[in-house]
Amino acid sequence: MSDQKNLPTVSRRDVVQLALAAGIVPLTGGWAAGQSRTEVEVLMTNALMGPGLREVVENEANVKITDAPFRTVTDSISRLLAPGGTTRFSVMHAQVEVARNPILGEKPGDEKIAPLDLAKIPNAANIADVFKDNYIRRDGKTYSVPGTFGFDTVIYNASEIPEADPFTQSWGMLFEDKYAGRIAWFDSALHMFLCAGLYLGNKAPEKMQGADLEEVQKFLVSRKKNVRTFWTSFAQGANLIGSGEVLCAYGPVVMRASLEQRKFPVGSAWCKEGVLSLVSGGFIPKDAPHKDLAHGIINAMIGPEYAKRLTKAAGYLSCSRYGASLISPEDAKRAGYGILDGTVKHHGISQPANFNAWVEAWSRVKSA
Amino acid sequence: MLLEYYSTYRNTRKLPFVAGQSAPQRRASRGGWLLAPAMAWLFLFTIVPVAMMLVLSFWTSTAYGIKAEFTLDNYRTIFGEPVYLSTFARTLRIAAVTTALTLVVAYPVALIVSRARGGWKAIALLFIFLPFWTSYVVRSFLWLPMLGRNGLINFLLIKLGIVTRPVDWLIYNEGAVYVGLVYAYMLFMFLPIYQSLDKQDRKLEEAASDLGATPARTFWRVILPLSLPGVFSGCTMVFMFACGAYVTPQLLGGASSLMASNVIGSQFQISNNWALGSALSITLMVIVLFCFMLGSSRLGLLQVLSGSRR
């Protein structure tokens, strides 16, 4: 009893205070750590900063990311080229072959983006050799490093269209009568003319002009009767399939990933004419507010942890060597890493020189 | 209100300022300064953007962006390429049909509400305003789960045994665009008509009745003519808004619903051709302005905008 008397007395209030302190300290510590991070605004396909990916970048680069709503690559470039456009975003990520000319400008000195300090991007050493042409460089300076790649193909409702059907392995799904009235096209001159060109046997559809372009335009007009609607955003496209409104659609990998995350049975065609592949790279606008932190973000986006999570979270594939090696061979094959070793036929998306003619031809298709 | 003020201001400006000016005249002169914020607002948010767009429309677009080199090529493209002219024609047609349909829907509603009494009028007005408290885009999106293949209407049609398979033609065609636009712009037609009808002196109707006019004749000879300023005002607003419709045709129109704003949008967002996009915008603006001038020639600018007789 006497021993008990000598013990320090602990009141109920002490216990409550201790418990509160134990709970609050880590909470406030975490909150304070979050608050101490600099907020950095980025512009890229929003899926690249989706759940599971944003945390990796924020932790590795020690920043708080705010990602602006993404519309299209061209829209992103337009926002960069607009007056004052180089001051808002710290990092942008866009399709290299579409962005290269406008962001570099006509001649040295016209660049809208800042040269990168590769010493601050050590993960660049791990970019696969196959992407050596997808850097943006001028006069010995590197302005962009490849970060992610992906491909566009036909995606379809696998519960209604059998995956084993050879018909599903072609761009023809979007054009032939078999699924008439249940097809959605992408409202994009570039993508629709490229896939239609490939389907019609053109080996380099991005070079189409004049009669070639007109032939594809006539073909698209003749097949428009089978189309239910056009989609303009990834979410809209995924919803068209997910809601049962259409059975198949022009589909970038991010749409497939979105449907898979909803457990929707989605099939993805390995088109015999070749899927349309694209490489995206990170770059820093010339007058970006946080250039040092921006390097950290680009570095994190080609790091092993981001590469490992990328495909499952967003559908895209990593240009880093870690991309395929950190996931199972089955997952790598299904994701499309076969593009790298040649087992998946693909055709790189690039901007045609006479793009205005393509846009006008697409307007004619739409208004027909 | 602003227009009435401007009218007063303009009239007072005509008066020479003399020492013997009356007090009301001096007050009106001083009142001119009160217009300064509104004029500054108009200059900054109307004149400057339109002027910038006009200048851009004469610049040259290249693969590297836009260059400050004068050219008429953008306008040559618009008037030489049939797709742009046909898109403008389709836009005007859709806007005209939308205006007519909105009028047909809004007029009876405005008439009934204006004749309602006390609490019923307040309740009716509340229900008319209620959907407009949400954004235009949300109201356009709402038609997707209503009209879609697996939407509410198809669900009801199948449940009631009217059809066995979902009806595909409820959405993604021009008809769906009309549904979306009429719904979106209903309020802009309803309000000026309601205002015209509500202000009418009921004794005129009683007098017409006393003189032996049937209700239909009273409507055609008394109510309708007196509400015409509201009708014209509503039609003008709905027509102008419909000419610039972007979201509704994109969401509900499907494969054949291209309107001018969609073409303009694609120049900025897809082809990065700001010069041609600006030229298309200016052309659309001139066409709409021309239609507006035609419409206002009958009643005068102020009456069309304010929806009331002077």
What does this 3D model show about the protein?
- The complex is a heterodimer of chains A (368) and B (310).
- With 368 residues, chain A is of the alpha/beta class.
- Helix content of chain A is 40%, strand content 19%.
- Chain A is built from 15 helices and 13 strands.
- In chain A, strands 1, 2, 3, 4, 5, 6, 7, 8, 9, 10, 11, 12 and 13 form a 13-stranded mixed sheet that branches.
- Chain A has 2 domains: 39-149 and 277-348, Periplasmic binding protein-like II (D-Maltodextrin-Binding Protein, domain 2, 3-Layer(aba) Sandwich); 153-274, 3-Layer(aba) Sandwich (D-Maltodextrin-Binding Protein, domain 2), CATH 3.40.190.
- Chain B is mainly α and 310 residues long.
- In chain B, strands 1-2 form a two-stranded antiparallel sheet.
- The model of chain B is unreliable at 1-6 and 12-18 (pLDDT under 50).
- The chains are: A alpha/beta (368), B mainly alpha (310).
- Chain A binds chain B through residues 71-72, 74-75, 77-78, 81, 101-102, 105-106, 110, 181, 185, 187-190, 224, 227-230, 232, 243-245, 351, 353, 355-356, 358-360, 362-364, 366-368, and chain B through 61-66, 77, 81, 83-84, 86-87, 90, 144, 148-150, 168, 172, 250, 253-256, 258, 263, 266-274, 276.
